[in-house]
Amino acid sequence: MLVRFALTIAAVIAGGLPAGAVDDFERPPIAYSETAADNAISRLQARIDAGKTSLPRDDRLGYLPALLDALDVPVSSQMLVFSKTSLQQQRITPQNPRALYFNDDVYVGYVRGGTVLELSVADPRLGTVFYTLDQDPAERATFVRQTEDCLICHGGSQTAGVPGHVVRSVYVDASGQPIFSAGSHRVDHTTPLINRFGGWYVTGTHGPQQHLGNVTFRKRPDHDGVDDMSGLNRIDVSDRFGTAGYPSGHSDLVALMVFAHQAAAHNAITKAGFESRAALHREAALNRELGEAADHRWPSTTTVLDAAAESLVECFLLCDEPPLAAAIGGTTDFAREFSSRGPTAPDGRSLRALDLNTRLFRHPCSYLVYDASFARLPAEVRDRFWRRLDAVLSGPDAAQRFAHLSAADRTAIREILAATHAGAPVAWKGP
Predict the structure, then answer these.
(1) What are the angstrom distances between the C-alpha of 109 and each of 78, 89, 119, 132, 345?
(2) Going residue by residue through the chain (431 aa), what tens digit of pLDDT does each one get?
(3) pTM of the prediction?
C-alpha cells in the first residue's frame, strides 16, 4: 500500500522540488532510499526481530504506550493538531485531533481510531527517515519504512531540499480543513509567537502575548471581524474535544516551543551533512579524474564546507529568535523532564536549562550539539563548526547576527560545552 505520511505541524503545504532536485539525495553518496537505515527505530526493530523485546498492545491505544516507553519518548511531550494533515487526515478534526510526541531523535504521530502510528526519526546518515506501524494486533510489531510518498512534502523546498520536517501554522475552519487562501507561517525558533500554532491546541500561559492556537475560522481571518481571544492562556482544552483515548489531555506550550526549534535544527544538520558529503564526493571524483592528490582541496568544496558550518552555528545559537514579551509556562511536567535529561556541567549548568521569561533557553545554544546526527557529520564540517563557534563565543567576532548573545551568555555557553562536550576546543578546557 502506498502511504502518504506527513508528520507536519499545523498543515502540509506541498512544496516539492522538481524530480531532478529530489534525485540529488537519491544518488551517491547519500542514496537515500537504497541505503539501510541505522537509527532508534531500526535498532528497536532489530531487537524485536531477535526476540529481545516486544511491544505489548493496549486495547484502547494500540501500540502507542509500549512504543513511547520503548523509545523513551515522554507522554508530557504530547502536542495536539486538529488541522487535516497527514496520512489519516479524514479522521482528524477539532473534535479528534492528532497527537504528536517527541524526544531528541524520535517523533511519533497518533490518531485516535487510526489504522497506523506515524513515525519519523533522525538518522545520522540519512537525515529524517519515515516509518509507519500498523495498529492492528500482530504476532510481532513491524515498522514499515516509507520513502517516495513522504518526500513529496518532506523532501522539497519546505525542508531545504533534504528529507526533513515541515513545520507550519495555518488558519483552519471548523472541520479542520486549512484555509489555504489565508496563507500560512513557517514555524521555527525565529517565528514570532503571534504567528504560531494555527491548527493546534495549546495548553499553557503566556500573558498578553497572542498566538493562533485553539481557534477555528469561518472564512479568511481578515473577514472574521473581531479577533477571537478565547484560545489564549488556556490551561484546559477538554471543552473542545473529548480527551478519552489519549494518554494526556494536554498540548503543552513549552513542548511546542522546544519542538519548533528542534525540528528546524534537525533539518539544518541534515542539510549540512548532505551538502558537505556531496561536495567531498565530487571533489574525490575530480581529484581522481585529474590526477590530483587525494587530499587536494578545491575552493568550491571549501565554500560548501564553510557555508554548512556557518548555517549550523547560526541555527544552534538561535539567531533571530524574537524575544518573549512575557513569561510562558506549560501545563505538564515536560519542562522539568526536558531540563533534567542533561548532560550537566559540574556546577549544575546545562544547555537544556529553560528560560521561558525572555527567550526559550537560559543559555542559547542548542542541545542537539550532543546529538548523534551532529557527531556523525563529516569531520571537515565539525572542525569548521567548532572554529566558527570559538570565534563567536571567545571574540573578536562581533557580527550583528550574534548580537543577541551577551558577554555572559558567551562565557556560559563556552564553559558548559568545555565541561560537557568532548569535541569542544581544547583551549576552552583550561590547563
Answers:
(1) 10, 12, 6, 9, 34
(2) 333 333 333 333 233 333 344 468 999 999 999 999 999 999 999 999 999 999 999 999 999 999 999 999 999 999 999 999 777 899 999 999 999 999 999 999 999 999 999 999 999 999 999 999 999 999 899 999 988 666 556 556 666 678 778 889 999 999 999 998 888 999 999 999 999 999 999 999 999 999 999 999 886 665 554 467 889 999 999 999 999 999 999 999 999 999 999 999 999 999 999 999 999 999 999 999 999 999 999 999 999 999 999 999 999 999 999 999 999 999 999 999 999 998 999 999 999 999 999 999 999 999 999 999 999 999 999 999 999 999 999 976 667 899 999 999 999 999 999 999 999 999 998 76
(3) 0.91
d(CA 141, CA 103): 21
| One-letter identity of residue 390 | D
Contact between residue 381 and residue 273 where contact means Cβ atoms under 8 Å apart: yes
Grid cell, residue 345, equals: 556541567
Phi, psi of 115 (to 5 degrees): -90, -25
The DSSP element (H or E) to which 117 belongs, if any, is: strand 116-123
Which contacts of 183-191 are long-range, i.e. CB under 8 A and separated by 24 or more positions? 184/10, 184/11, 184/13, 186/158, 187/9, 187/10, 187/260, 188/260, 188/261, 188/263, 188/264, 189/260, 189/261, 189/264, 189/318, 189/320, 189/321, 189/360, 190/319, 190/320, 190/321, 190/322, 191/260, 191/322
